[in-house]
Write the C-alpha cells for this entry.
Amino acid sequence: MIRLCECLFGLSVLALHVLLCYLLLGGVATLVIVGVQLLIAGWLIYIRIRAPD
C-alpha cells in the first residue's frame, strides 16, 4: 500500500511538472524539455542494465 501511494505521488508530481512547464513555456518547449528528460532517463536505465555488478 505504501509503494502504491509513493507511485501515485510520483505521478502527481510528474503531471504537475509537465503542467507548469506548459503554462510557463508553451507546448513546443514542454515537448523539448520532456523529450530531453526521457532521453536522459533512458540512457541512465541503459547504463544501469549494462553496468557490471
Notes: The chain has a mean pLDDT of 93.
